[in-house]
């Protein structure tokens, strides 16, 4: 496995490479990332994993400085997973000058996670565009845990005519149901015990929707109240149309229950897709 | 020469093509466009010329509907010029769904032409991004007549890490100095006679700057007054730094005098680069 730090060297290495698979990460890798690598391997001959903590997608009061940088441990995991190239550029390699041109994401980027993280998806779409242009992958794999991000990346690819196939990886969970995330490492033991409740609450949302006794808004607000009483600060609990991410209507068959909530200083997100058969 | 109307067919044709040169146009071609084709031929083995009147870069009160569509005549000129492929997609081929994600250009896009054409450069940058992703050229040639556009395209390529070399083509002029433009065809005979005055006025600006007797702002406003008295509606006359497009300071060596002004309903633009030796 090669570790490459510069765009020029990466381009040279990939110049005549066919069938490239890309997994973009911010490092601090867990089994969820390795699952994405394995999906990429099924479709590609050369797997590139980028590790870059992208300042453009962090708000001023967010955890950019605290975000765990664990390059050596990450590289060991990626080598064991059969990755060909780790691309680990510095901030000045990706942003040699201020990024005064950005991707303006669609209106949906202002809702859900975007409502509490203004500018986040513009930062994501911009850095992913750059990485796509640097690596020129045939396939890129993104996790469903970041459901809204996946939605926006699919829009990016389709609306900008990028010749890249986007593959979605299922969310990998701890035994108690907590979705794997680099940010789980911020949780203290009591918070870690409580953290499983987010995925459980979303399961209750799904069950309630299927029972059809309560309206979507009622289910959302009752679930928010339930988590709030348990000490969570809830950003949103929302039932949405899987294909558009717009608020679900009772006509929609393919839905997704999404949630974002904070335990102490740690913000967790999760979602469950489901069908109204 | 092939004329291709769909993205799928174009991709198939270019799949194993090396060394592609692209000239993006809105059709109604003149000698200025052919000059760009000739520049592309010097560096590429396969020349693609796109012809697409991009609705996204026209304001609501602009000349989108009136813009001349002359595909047959254009193709004859391009065949004679040795072009390999004309890409002439329909509006629904380029925008099968509403373009809800766009390129947000840098602040300079709000000045000069952007001040009187809000959203114009976002539309330009977005469609050029799409065409770059569809054609994947090695070289793309843009004319210096659209100096601000060229500046923004260079920023697009550099800030989004596009592996494309941008080549700039000199402005081609009529015998009386009028910069060639598809919009010159809108001028009535009296306006056509007067139109040469824009390039002459910009030459006077350059001479005045070199003489160093008047300040830049004075030169700009005197030239604006001069054209206004002759019946022009002046959008701007501006002396700028060639490298940043910011208002020039007396320290700058490489300057450009830019102007945009209307004769009747026709908006003309022009510019002259010059050095303060």
Automatic annotation (TrEMBL), chains A, B:
Its main location: cytoplasm. Pfam families: Pantoate_ligase. It catalyses: (R)-pantoate + beta-alanine + ATP = (R)-pantothenate + AMP + diphosphate + H(+). GO terms for cellular component: cytosol. Belongs to the pantothenate synthetase family. Catalyzes the condensation of pantoate with beta-alanine in an ATP-dependent reaction via a pantoyl-adenylate intermediate. NCBIfam families: panC. This is Pantothenate synthetase. The gene is panC.
């Amino acid at each position: 496995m090669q570790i490459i730090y510069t765009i020029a060297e990466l381009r040279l290495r990939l110049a005549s490479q066919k069938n490239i698979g890309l997994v973009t990460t911010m490092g601090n890798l867990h089994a969820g990332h390795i699952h994405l690598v394995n999906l990429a391997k099924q479709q590609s001959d050369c797997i590139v994993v980028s590790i870059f903590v992208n300042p453009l997608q962090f708000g001023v009061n967010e955890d950019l400085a605290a975000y765990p940088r664990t390059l050596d441990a990450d590289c060991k995991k990626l080598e064991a997973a059969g990755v060909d190239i780790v691309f680990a550029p510095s901030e000045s390699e990706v942003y040699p000058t201020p990024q005064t041109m950005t991707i303006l994401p669609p209106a949906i980027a202002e809702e859900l996670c975007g409502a509490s993280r203004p500018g986040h998806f513009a930062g994501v779409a911009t850095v992913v565009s750059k990485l796509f242009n640097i690596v020129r992958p045939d396939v890129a794999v993104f996790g469903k845990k970041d459901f809204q991000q996946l939605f926006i990346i699919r829009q990016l690819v389709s609306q900008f005519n990028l010749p890249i196939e986007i593959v979605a990886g299922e969310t990998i969970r701890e035994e108690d149901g907590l979705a794997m995330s680099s940010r789980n490492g911020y949780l203290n033991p009591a918070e870690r015990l409580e953290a499983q409740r987010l995925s459980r609450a979303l399961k209750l949302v799904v069950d309630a929707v299927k029972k059809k006794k309560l309206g979507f808004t009622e289910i959302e607000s009752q679930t928010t109240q339930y988590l709030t009483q348990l000490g969570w600060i809830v950003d949103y609990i929302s039932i949405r149309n899987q294909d558009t991410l717009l608020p679900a209507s009772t006509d929609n068959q393919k839905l997704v229950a999404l949630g974002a909530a904070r335990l102490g200083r740690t913000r967790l997100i999760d979602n469950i897709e489901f069908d109204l058969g």
